[in-house]
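[User] Once you have settled down, look closely at the record that follows, and write a paragraph about the fold.
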Amino acid sequence: MAAGKHSQAGEEKATSRGQSDANRKLKYISLAVLVVQNASLILSIRYVRTLPGDRFFTTSAVVMAEILKVLTCLLIILLQKKFSVKETASFLLDSIVFQYKDTLKLAVPSLIYTLQNNLQYVAISNLPAATFQVTYQLKILTTALFSVMMLRKSLSRVQWISLLLLFGGVAIVQVQQEGNKEASLSDSSSQNYTVGLVAVVISCMSSGFAGVYFEKILKGSAASVWLRNVQLGLFGMALGMLGMWWNDGAAIAEHGFLFGYTGMVWCVIFNQAFGGLLVAVVVKYADNILKGFATSFSIIVSTVTSIYLFGFHVDLMFTAGAGLVIGAVYMYSLPKAAGGSSSPGVSSSASSVAAAGAERGAEMEAFLPKCEGKEKGS
């Protein structure tokens, strides 16, 4: 009897050790995927926007990414319905059309996300990839401020200090870039640093607001996150097409929707469309500290790669500013001390439509599948 219990205890210990080793491996895989996804999108957009030859229309790329995301989410819903087309169509009709008031809630974040996606292309087209990567971390600051105002979320003292360091680091990078603006943009006279900077700042502000707004919607509804992203995507496609017609309508009518699309451009679009979904899968095995490391590493990867690909110049001021940002991102991701105050109902993770730090937390929850019985909106 005793031998049986000892054997069972040994098996449980071995199983626990095996699970621990598997989780450790999954964390390392998660870290690698997060770093690659964070850095590759920015670098690839920068690369395709600086190549000679025909330029693709960024507005059409935004629309195409939304189309791919919607199709993916529809496929997942169809899978959840066991490939019953009739049941899936009935569910979508009821959730999107009949419950139109619930669907309309997504119009605001969808408008902001569409604007943000277009601004991201504008910013990366006019800023060095490393500068954009560092400056874009201001979205952590804007997301934190909107979380405090809209969700009554409380921040620890370390988080407030990290936000000040983040702002200071970005300011140092901008001072350095302003001093070397001509050198950093000498590869293309068509680039405008001021336009890029304004675009990234507006993108950070809109990203913070949209992420928190979307998180608030998710908390007030039991609707499936896949359904929510279909609703977002439908508005995104409509608004994206409107922006495409307004900005590039005549040129697209002349050259075609897919003008300038190369294999690399398709890689960028697929990265945009499926990057959030991929990150949502791996982030289930990642904690906030790991996400902070991933964001920090992606800044380093972007900077080093920019040196070789784009001839980006790194001096002492940029290194100091980027170092402050990396440290601030890591500090912000640290867990609160025991007994630290935190507002009830504010989760550490949320949707696929926001991004790193607090926003990355919001980005994830929206893609984590809920149970089948809670798919209909309230």
